[in-house]
């Protein structure tokens, strides 16, 4: 058979490093090798029972047909109510589209606002999918390299410098994956002034908004009245409600954008799962959710404190304590070039491979997040696993000469 001519756009996509490392770890585990993984991008908590019960009821009631393409009216109202209640938004159901996960919402947003050659600004370190999604819509990712001094956040001065006539949007997450840091209200208000002046869009990824520590508070840039028409807010139920596999996200934006997203989604996936939508209505409307979220948040905070203490005890590693999400992003550059059994580990990927093969500890190298010096450690695992991982981290760095 002759070689088929396939899409260069898709061929040139970078595979997800999180999925690749997780797959390698699972392969070793399948062979009976005791690998501890700090790769998880999802809570290790079950979905609350009352949410599952609502889904079971929907199945038994044969709620298995298509729903309205942008989502059930009851769910869109529940989301709008949540945004008013928790985020100080002025919005209605017409500002909401329900998607098959938050990642789908981001892709809808980019497809809707971007034309070929438009520039979308992102700060590095970034979530692995941002640059690839931008490329998929024929736009150009413009990377701003951030520093530890600013907790890896894009400053207003950096944003201003990166804006050109081709700039369409600035995308960021807060709390951030992979760093766990948050943009403060004052920082976002300064960014909002620039956004308004240069008439660009903001894509605000708020999927980790409920997982905050040390009494930090989340501020939504979409609540700023002067730029609300320019803000596309991404969220979902995956992280806060431990519903990653349910694939339920949403986008809040001005009505014109939502109408276009509705048209786009109608030609792609159509509506999100009817069963997941029913469960989501219960999750958003039942006050028990907030009790369960707080219980989970407290456990994550305890784990964060433990892992941060371990990492901080290792010589020559720097790491800011994360303010949210469930990741640490330590700078391990002082260990690059060191040797194990005479072999130099020159790159962050080689260092990660060493830990996986020798210490049987899996984590994500920073290269996939736009960093050559850091690693991402997830504490979305049990405390028992975290203690074993801590021992292997200490031992692994100690053995590098």
- Measured between the Cα atoms of the first and last residue, the distance is 52 Å
As residue ranges, the low-confidence spans are none
CATH topology of the largest domain, by name, is Aspartate Aminotransferase, domain 2
- CATH architectural label of the largest domain: 3-Layer(aba) Sandwich
Q: Please indicate the count of domains.
A: 2
Could you please describe the fold and organization of this structure?
- The protein is of the alpha/beta class and 401 residues long.
- It has 2 domains: 8-46 and 290-398, Aspartate Aminotransferase, domain 1 (Alpha-Beta Complex); 49-286, Aspartate Aminotransferase, domain 2 (3-Layer(aba) Sandwich), CATH 3.40.640.
- The chain is built from 13 helices and 14 strands.
- The strands form 4 sheets. The protein has a 7-stranded mixed β-sheet, with helices on both faces. It has a 3-stranded antiparallel β-sheet with strand order 9-14-13. Strands 1-12 form a two-stranded parallel sheet.
- Helix 8 links the parallel strand 5 (167-173) and strand 6.
- Helix 4 packs parallel to helix 10 and helix 5 packs across helix 9 (255-266).
- The N and C termini lie far apart (52 Å).
In short:
This protein is α/β, with parallel strands linked by helices.
Tags for this entry?
single chain; 401 residues; alpha/beta; Aspartate Aminotransferase, domain 1; Aspartate Aminotransferase, domain 2; 2 domains; seven-stranded mixed β-sheet; three-stranded antiparallel β-sheet; 14 strands; 41% helix; 13% strand
């Amino acid at each position: 058979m002759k070689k088929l001519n396939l899409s260069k756009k898709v061929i040139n996509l970078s595979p997800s490093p999180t999925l690749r490392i997780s797959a390698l770890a699972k392969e070793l585990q399948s062979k009976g090798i005791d690998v501890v993984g700090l790769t998880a991008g999802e809570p290790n908590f079950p979905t609350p029972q009352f949410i599952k019960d609502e889904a079971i009821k929907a199945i038994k009631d044969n709620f298995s047909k298509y729903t309205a393409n942008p989502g059930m009216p009851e769910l869109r109202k529940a989301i709008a109510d949540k945004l008013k209640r928790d985020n100080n938004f002025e919005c209605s159901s017409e500002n909401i589209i329900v998607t098959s996960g938050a990642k789908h919402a981001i892709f809808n947003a980019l497809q809707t606002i971007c034309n070929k050659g438009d520039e979308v600004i992102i700060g590095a370190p970034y979530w692995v999918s941002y640059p690839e999604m931008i490329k998929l819509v024929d736009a150009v990712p413009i990377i701003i390299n951030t520093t530890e001094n600013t907790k890896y956040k894009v400053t207003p001065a950096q944003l201003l410098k990166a804006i050109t006539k081709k700039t369409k949007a600035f995308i960021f997450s807060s709390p951030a994956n992979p760093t766990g840091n948050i943009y403060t209200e004052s920082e976002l208000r300064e960014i909002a002034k620039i956004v308004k002046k240069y008439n660009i869009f903001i894509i605000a990824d708020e999927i980790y908004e409920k997982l905050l520590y040390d009494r930090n508070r989340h501020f939504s840039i979409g609540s700023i009245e002067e730029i609300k028409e320019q803000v596309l807010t991404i969220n979902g139920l995956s992280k806060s409600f431990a519903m990653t596999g349910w694939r339920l996200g949403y986008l809040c934006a001005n009505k014109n954008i939502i109408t276009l997203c509705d048209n786009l989604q109608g030609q792609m996936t159509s509506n999100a799962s009817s069963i997941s939508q029913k469960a989501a209505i219960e999750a958003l409307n039942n006050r028990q959710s907030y009790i369960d979220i707080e219980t989970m948040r407290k456990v994550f905070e305890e784990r964060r404190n433990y892992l941060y203490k371990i990492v901080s005890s290792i010589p020559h590693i720097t790491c800011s304590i994360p303010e949210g999400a469930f990741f640490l992003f330590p700078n391990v550059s002082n260990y690059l070039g060191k040797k194990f059994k005479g072999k130099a580990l020159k790159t962050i990927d080689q260092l990660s491979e060493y830990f996986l093969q020798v210490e049987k500890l899996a984590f994500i190298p920073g290269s996939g997040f736009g960093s050559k010096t850091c690693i991402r450690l997830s504490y979305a695992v049990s405390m028992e696993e975290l203690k074993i991982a801590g021992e292997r981290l200490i031992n692994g760095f100690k053995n590098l000469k």
